[in-house]
Write a structure and sequence with these properties.
CATH topology of the largest domain: Dihydrodipicolinate Reductase, domain 2
Shape: globular
Distance between the termini: 59 Å
Number of domains: 2
Radius of gyration: 20 Å
CATH class of the largest domain: Alpha Beta
Number of helices: 8
Strand content: 25-35%
Helix content: 25-40%
CATH superfamily of the largest domain: Dihydrodipicolinate Reductase, domain 2
Strand order of the largest sheet: 8-9-10-7-11-12-13-14
Order of helices and strands: EHEHEEHEHEHEHEEEEEEEHH
Structural class: alpha/beta
Length: 309
């Protein structure tokens, strides 16, 4: 069965959703929509599909939709798509508020439509290889820093970049509850938080320190996990996992190299498979909501400090 898909929002990331859908076997990219007519028409011309400025016009011809618009529009567009009975992949963060996320989850359940959140790193092959190696984590340290690109500035850095590492760490701590979140951050080039650090504590004593910046001099993407008797560093860019452990009175390490693949293609392939089998996505609405909750709390803590200053 061919799954007919549409993409709402074909800016920097949305155009890649359109490209990947056009490449996937058993999928037909039927339509794209964007408020910028020329942008929609250019992408539609590349892939031989229809272009709209009103996304509702695609509803009669598609089975599933990617929402790749600015976050502030996610909720209203998703409500319309759910009412139309369309399976959804919503780029992260799922919404701008936890209440909106909860409402979308309720609506999707009632309408029996699929709801997946676009946390891309879950589909990075190095993350898939790393997860089974984590045994008894006692501390996490995440670094996700980039030079300024001018994208994603409609939201705080906690929702733009840090939320990726929040989601990964939550996935590595199943069944554990967060009991405390502290955070600090600054504005640099935008009116929102551009640099942030967050300290997270779980109910079993495990801690995490997360750093995110979009004003750094160079790009770094690493997650270090300290287990009981070793520590491991996952490098998202080099696709390597370095494991450090004691041996014969010294610290030694080995390196695991992971074959790269395009995470977006793996993510969209998973979404399409879930629409066919009606199974819960790896990053369902609930998991997207959980990551949003932590990221928003970190942002709240930072802004509370600003008010006191």
């Amino acid at each position: 069965m061919t799954v007919r898909v549409g993409v709402i929002g074909v800016g920097y990331l949305g155009r890649h959703h359109a490209r990947v859908y056009a490449e996937l076997e058993g999928v037909k990219l039927v339509a794209v929509a964007d408020t910028h007519q020329k942008q929609a028409e250019d992408i539609a011309r590349q892939h031989g599909c229809k272009a709209y400025t009103d996304y509702k016009q695609m509803f009669d011809s598609v089975d599933a939709i990617s929402i790749v618009t600015p976050t502030i529009n996610h909720y209203s567009i998703a409500c319309d798509c759910i009412t139309a009975g369309k399976d959804l992949l919503i780029e992260k963060p799922i919404t701008t508020t936890v209440d909106e996320a909860d409402d979308l989850i309720r609506q999707a359940k009632t309408a029996k439509v699929l709801l997946q959140v676009g946390h891309l790193e879950r589909f990075n092959p190095v993350v898939a290889a790393f997860g089974p190696l984590v045994q008894e984590p006692v501390f996490f340290e995440a670094q996700r820093i980039s030079p300024f690109q001018g994208r994603g500035t409609d939201v705080d850095i906690t929702l733009d970049l840090m939320i990726h590492d929040i989601d990964i760490i939550l996935s590595l701590m199943p069944g554990r509850k967060i009991i405390d979140i502290k955070a600090s951050g600054v504005r640099v080039l935008t009116k929102t938080i551009d640099l942030a650090k967050a300290w997270i504590h779980f109910d079993n004593g495990t801690g995490a320190l997360l750093t995110a910046s979009r004003v750094a001099s160079e790009k770094t993407r690493t997650l270090t996990v300290y287990d009981r008797d070793r520590h491991m560093v996952m490098d998202y860019q080099s696709m390597e996992i370095r494991r450090y452990f004691a041996k014969d009175g010294a610290v030694v390490h080995d390196v695991m190299r992971v074959e790269p693949a395009e995470p977006l293609k793996e993510e969209l392939r998973h979404f399409i498979a879930c629409t066919r089998t009606r199974t819960t996505p790896r990053v369902c609405g609930l998991k997207g909501r959980d990551a949003l909750t932590v990221a928003m709390q970190a942002g709240y803590e930072i802004k509370k400090r600003w008010e006191k200053a």
